[in-house]
Amino acid sequence: MFKNPFKKNSEKSLEIKQDWASYFTRVDDKPASIRLNLGLNDLAPIEKYEHRVWFSVQLLDPDNNGFTTREEFPTICKIEDDISEALEKKGAIAAGALKTNGTFDVYFYTSATIDIAEMAATVMQNHPNYRYATDTKVDTNWSDYFDFLYPAEFEYQTILNQRVLTNLDKEGDNPAIERPVDHWLYFQTEADRNAFITTIEKLGYKILSQEKIDRNINSFQLNISKVSDVNWNTINDNVWELITLTKENNGVYDGWGCPIAK
């Protein structure tokens, strides 16, 4: 599973931040799970790495959502490790992976044309029961990474929400216990911020602070709070609602936090 997510270019060392994350979405109206290296966002498109390589394997026994079952998961991981190792030996950079509709796909970018069909045929000799497919194309702008694998705004915030929840869990937090949950937001003008405040006060939010900070845009800061639990669904519902309302008032949402409750 992307044991060595990138290989150093023989011409120039590539320092690639490893910031792997997963999120759920829909592809062709089917449930989908995408895993990708968010760290590539700051570098891509990478010069000379203009060849997108794709490998897809068809699951033998997908679950009702089209994902891997617990029983088949180790085999799919082994297939991913094998094809990834073969590609990385050729200097390929792992971009992401997709599970949906009974298939598992991996995406890489390379600086040279790779015969992925021949490589896959060699790898899959050890997995003769599986059907697979391969493809390569020139993707100079890394459109498959940015326009397909990369999360949209709401999915990206879901990733950030999960990271906060994971940190809370490591500290022994009980997500069912209600406590004040703080949110930070920024607006273009004071009028935008005031309009937003009028709306969210009706939803039970308390205003903690309002400041004007030294920045070129969105300089009108707002810190608000509301008592709630921090279960997965509660947090996502509240955050998505705030993102929507913030956008309607020319602002940006900038995350949340809360005290640990045990």
Description:
This protein is of the alpha+beta class and 262 residues long. It has helices at residues 73-88, 116-123, 143-149, 153-170, 190-201, 232-248; strands spanning 20-27, 30-37, 51-58, 93-100, 103-110, 132-138, 179-187, 206-212, 220-228, 251-257. The strands form 2 sheets. The protein has a 6-stranded antiparallel beta sheet, sandwiched between helices. A hairpin with a 2-residue loop joins strand 4 (93-100) and strand 5. The two termini are 35 Å apart.
Question: Which properties best describe this structure?
Answer:
single chain; 262 residues; alpha+beta; Alpha-Beta Plaits; six-stranded antiparallel β-sheet; 6 helices; 10 strands; 30% strand; disordered N terminus; DUF695; RraB_dom
Give the secondary structure arrangement, pairings included.
Layout (H helix, E strand, L loop, with lengths): L19 E8 L2 E8 L13 E8 L14 H16 L4 E8 L2 E8 L5 H8 L8 E7 L4 H7 L3 H18 L8 E9 L2 H12 L4 E7 L7 E9 L3 H17 L2 E7 L5
Antiparallel strand pairs: 1-2, 2-4, 3-5, 3-6, 4-5, 7-9, 7-10, 8-9
Helix pairs in contact: 1-2, 4-6
Gyration radius, rounded:
22 Å
Low-confidence stretches: 3-11
Name the quaternary structure: single chain
**CATH superfamily of the largest domain, called what?**
Ribosomal protein S10
Structural class of the helix and strand makeup? alpha+beta
Beginning-to-end CA distance, first to last residue: 35 Å
Give the domain tally.
2
What is the molecular shape?
elongated
Mean pLDDT: 93
> How many β-strand stretches?
10
